[in-house]
Design goal:
Elements: E1 5-11, H1 19-29, E2 32-38, H2 42-45, H3 48-55, H4 79-86, E3 89-95, H5 97-105, H6 111-118, E4 123-127, H7 131-135, H8 137-148, E5 152-153, E6 157-160, E7 166-170, H9 174-186, E8 199-204, E9 209-212, E10 215-217, H10 224-235, E11 239-244, E12 256-259, H11 263-273, E13 279-282, E14 289-291, E15 309-311, H12 315-322, E16 328-335, H13 339-350, E17 354-359, E18 371-377, E19 382-389, H14 390-414
Parallel strand pairs: 1-2, 1-3, 3-4, 4-5, 8-11, 8-13, 11-12, 13-16, 16-17
Antiparallel strand pairs: 6-7, 9-10, 14-15, 17-18, 18-19
Helix pairs in contact: 1-3, 1-9, 4-6, 5-8, 10-14, 11-12
The chain binds flavin mononucleotide (FMN).
């Protein structure tokens, strides 16, 4: 863990606010540099001076700093935007029912709630409240909304509560909250909302080309990689259009599912929705051939049968040709030999921004497995995607896609 990473500790107005002092101390012990933001209700429970003295940093609580705009002084920037952009994580201890509701609904009427909307850093909430407030459907629905948007919730424990009741709603242990911060930062991407505002179009599964009304030519793709990408992109805040050939999987929550069977259906769904997408990831295994003349009735066994196959449309090429200039396109290649050479040749042939190449010759990774490994190829780089679960690999692919786009943007600005 890099030393002195800045962490913003948001403190809201609940009885457990005093426990935030210990969380701040433990974050320092873990090598972080905590800065504190308080709501005005929190200031009723604790003096900002306590946190200022421990952290050595001014405690932020008002959107309207006294010297901003005052004559004579230099304007030092907008505090809540500065804080949002310079922090590595926002952890809120305790998160009150009120604050959770505000975050879920995008209300931005004080420093902490405004900063929350303005940050793309991971956000971790440690709720604490009376058991009935905790169990209230409004609180639970708000938490679900935040979870879906990629916010990490450190679940409260059960026990004796300050209000005199016994039950759920007791702030998690301070050490558990600090461990959640460390773990979140060790898994880049897992809890970020850095795809907010993006529309990501993902294809998944293996297409099927009919031979007759009951048989088809297909492939071994399970759809797991594409579905993992869709779930992760959604978690990171994107609107996700999942164009899926048949799979045995359940569509990830919050994604718009467009079910297709053949290459032609996939092509028309993808091209139809392409204008909406800022990032396209073609993880589907698309059939290269279709049966030239599928039978209209079920074929009966009568000696040898020869099927004539004809090439299907090259969807990836068409996407690259038709996309808007700001749309990033990432292809996938499943290779069984000369994996990197074949991958690089495909990258150039298709003109995509990047290509994820998998070696599907083994049994431990690739088709139908929960694990994968490969490379993320761009015209200038070969980046290894070490063996991991498809879920973890999905985050890495999204990280590399965003880094590639940022690099291109910087190059453009420099020229
Ligand atoms: C003595 C007292 C204790 C409170 N404890 C909690 C609590 O533990 N959790 C909670 O969600 N709200 C609690 N509240 C209610 C909040 O303080 C109230 O909803 C407030 O508006 C929260 O503001 P904030 O979310 O901006 O910090 C408490 C209120 C009082 C007066």
């Amino acid at each position: 863990m890099p030393e002195q990473l800045k962490i913003t500790v948001g403190v809201a107005g609940g009885i457990a606010a005093y426990k935030a002092v210990e969380v701040v101390r433990q974050l320092q012990d873990a090598g972080f540099d905590p800065h504190v933001v308080m709501t005005s209700a929190a200031e009723r429970f604790l003096q900002p001076l306590t946190f200022a003295a421990i952290t050595g940093h001014k405690v932020l609580s008002s959107l309207w700093s006294e010297d901003a705009g005052a004559s004579g002084g230099e304007f030092s920037g907008i505090d809540h935007i500065n804080e949002a952009q310079t922090t590595s994580a926002l952890v809120i201890v305790p998160a009150t029912a009120d604050l959770i509701a505000k975050l879920a609904h995008g209300i931005a009427d004080d420093f902490l709630t405004t900063m929350y909307l303005a940050t793309t850093a991971p956000v971790i909430l440690a709720p604490a409240m009376n058991v009935n407030m905790w169990l209230h459907p409004a609180t639970q629905a708000n938490l679900e909304t935040l979870r879906e948007r990629g916010v990490r919730i450190v679940e409260p424990g059960a026990g004796y509560l300050a209000c005199g009741m016994v039950g759920g709603g007791r702030l998690a242990e301070e050490s558990t909250i600090v461990a959640a911060v460390s773990e979140t930062l060790a898994n880049p991407g897992a809890y970020r909302s850095d795809l907010t505002g993006e529309t990501v179009l993902i294809t998944a599964g293996g297409t099927r080309e009919p031979i007759d009304p009951v048989r088809y030519v297909g492939n071994r793709s399970s759809g797991k990689m594409g579905y993992a990408l869709a779930a992760k992109a959604r978690r990171r805040g994107a609107r996700v259009l999942l164009v899926s050939a048949p799979t045995a999987l359940e569509a990830p929550a919050g994604c718009e599912l467009l079910s297709v069977i053949t290459v032609e259906e996939m092509r028309s769904a993808v091209l139809d929705r392409l204008p909406e997408a800022s990032l396209v990831i073609m993880a589907a295994a698309v059939s290269d051939y279709r049966v030239a003349r599928p039978a209209s009735e079920k074929l009966r066994r009568k000696g040898p049968l020869t099927l004539e196959l004809e090439p299907t449309e090259d969807i990836l090429r068409e996407i690259v040709e038709r996309r808007a200039s700001g749309t990033t396109v990432i292809g996938f290649a499943a290779e069984t030999e000369q994996v990197l050479d074949n991958g690089r040749a495909k990258l150039e042939r298709k003109g995509v921004d990047a290509l994820v190449v998998n070696d599907v010759s083994g049994t431990e990774t690739g088709f139908d497995s929960d694990r994968n490994a490969g490379w993320f190829l761009t015209p200038g780089e070969t980046i290894e995607l070490p063996e991991s679960t498809k879920t973890a690999m999905a985050d890495r692919i999204l990280d590399h896609a965003l880094a590639l786009r940022m690099h291109r943007y910087e190059m453009k600005q420099a020229n």
